[in-house]
Amino acid sequence: MNLEEYFETKNSQDFPSEKDYVAIYRTFKQFMNSEIHNEVKAITTRLDNTVYLNDHSANHVKMVMVKVSSILKDCSYLTPYECFILLVAIQIHDAGHIFNGRDGHEKSGRYLLENLNVDTIERKIIGDIAKAHSGKNDPIGNLPYKTSISGHDVRIRELAALLRFGDELADENSRASSYLLKKDLIPEDSKLYHAFSESLYNFNPDKESHCIQMGFSLTKNQVQNRYKKGESSIYLLDEIYTRTFKTFQECLYYNRFVSYEYQFHSIIISIEFIDEGFEPFFDTISYRIEEKGYPTLSINNVFEYCGAQLERSNNKLTGDYVHQCVNSSL
Fold first, then answer.
1. pTM confidence score
2. What CATH architecture does domain 1-170 belong to?
3. Is the dihedral of CA 88, 94, 97, 103 positive or negative?
4. Rounded (10°) CA dihedral 157, 249, 266, 192
């Protein structure tokens, strides 16, 4: 039973003020499916003449739900109310594209919540969780740890982490426009992203081993082509190395906000090379990315790392500064 199916088995007494949140969600989902998701797909595939994003439609929303369900295995880890909050956040997380394209899409999806029949504070929480799926300025760490509404706790950071990591895992070959890629109808600036998704046939979490499995299959054409990336070009294999390492970074970030049972500590990657006759033309490449060795920090100075926590009146709380303060008070 996936997250959405589990949620829809619940009754109104499972929610704040015994409101029928299942009915509220169904109404909102219908609105998103009929009015919004198709528009998002249309816009993201025609942002301009150089950008053709991979799938951001209702199918992507479903895939994020599938991945979150796979992470949890047992959806009862979340309360029914948390399920509602998370499901709505998943529905809107990419929908902001319809307002101003790619820029700021993670924030503007919250405007759609005016069509959700809940209180303002609930809309704010959902919007905050949705917007944390993008960005590198510690968007989850900047959220409150949790809150409570009518006696129902909501683990805000944990829900945001599940959405963000589920979104990361939802980048399989179903997101690629394979036919358009084959017919050379995708702009050069976007071909790499579709080729990457097309080659990724397995991207799944294994909760028991705390490991993420990634499986790729490359054709001779994909191996021989160079794809435009920014002002230069790159082989798809090298992009796979870059993106799998990014997935590991996302994994470490996700781990910061969830209990050990739901953490993942390694990424196991397998890259196969299969020609059009279904025969291998190069030996499989396999590798594992995991933490090892003594941990290092890019910032080695505790004062830079902790910032204002170790300052007073714009002075760093060094031994010399404290010494002077103490002496001046004698």
1. 0.90
2. Orthogonal Bundle (1.10)
3. positive
4. 120
